[in-house]
Amino acid sequence: MSIRKLIANRMLIFTDALVPVNEIARMPFRPDRFLYEESCAYLERIGKNIADFYFNKFTPFSWFAYWRDHVLIDIPAFNPDILEAMLIGQTIDLETARLENCLQKGDYNAFFYLVDSRIALETYLKLFQRIPDQDKYRLFWYTFSRANLKLEDFHPEFIHTIQSYRSNELILPHDEQGYVEIYRGHILNNPITRASTWTLDVNTAICFSRRHQIKGQIYRGKIHKDRVIANIKYRNYKEIICFPGDVEEIEEMSFLSLADLMPELEHQGIIKLYRNYVPLIKKEYFHKAEGIHGVSHTRRVLLLSLILSGMENLTESDRDLLCQVAIFHDIGRTNDNFDPEHGRQSYQKIQHNNLFKAEGQKQEMLRFIIENHCISDVQARHLLNNYQVNDREHLFNLYQVFKDADGLDRIRINDLDIKQLRTPSAHKLLLVARELLDDTQGITSKV
After folding, report:
1. Residue range(s) defining the domain that contains residue 406
2. Which pTM was predicted?
3. 422 and which of 134, 142, 364, 400 could share a cystine (Cβ 3.0–4.6 Å)?
4. 216 shares its domain with 294
């Protein structure tokens, strides 16, 4: 299989950029890190071939490299001291042995996990005939995603060849007509109509729209499930690969941003309230204050609770209740795993330490939300009668508002399912949740 006939973007052939060091040695100017004759003597002593060593101008902190077959190793400087310090002979032998071991066992999954991503595509194409037919499709798209490739990097004929090795129909969420809703965060100058990489998750699209501190656009489109080329699950990006012309009804999506909200948050006194509540969040309350359920998470949930309270027109008393819930809802956690009991443990900790006292029903309302925020809404509703409150429906509405505030911050673990959001207001805050995680305004940290 001729690599150059398959790849439209010749820049993907990484090894074309490698220059043999013996060619560099003939140049009148040599880099300071390049002691050719001394290095040749050292390599000869350890039984390595100088022909396998290269100059690589595209890696500024490692100008040199060893490359042979499937092994690529960066070398910061080409002199005997560095080569010896790197144990270059042993390193080469180790990398070669473990990759060859994978090939001998036919373990192509491990092989393509281990091979350097810069030469993974070339390696795949070189080994194409050896790779079992049932693995060709999956391993190509794994390599595609791992090496950050684009569909337009390849000739369409090759992509169709890869498609012919797909053995099963893709399992995708689709409507009755077979259409899949897809999203894209777009920061490029190219028209969106030329995009070939999309995602099933709007939160992933929002994340990509803000890469490198550049504010891009977020688009939604749809594609028939039979026109999807691949659904790549590597890195949990939920990638959808397709030919650009197959995406229909592309439209730009709009979300509220912190910049949009800030004037109103200041006017309503929300930011001032947030700063008044933050000192109540104590590091000593938490099992792991710096963990994913620690202080930073609690601060974001507190602010989101305040924002949602305003958007949902809650009373001052209800807003205060949700803020207290936000402050204490995870203090009973002793791990960062799925833990449906930590709500009860949090409330027990509140009682044991006298952290929050209120009269009558307000205490019961706080107890219900905290104890049940970590179980399903259906389960919580069944338990609602166990709490001494007059207006259970109102309490359940507050419970749902808080669950949305807590749920929006699941974006931090790439596990925010917008279908689980309960209030219309929460659906408008997806971008805000991402901005709070990035803390671009310094709101949650500068208090």
Report:
1. 258-438
2. 0.78
3. 400
4. no
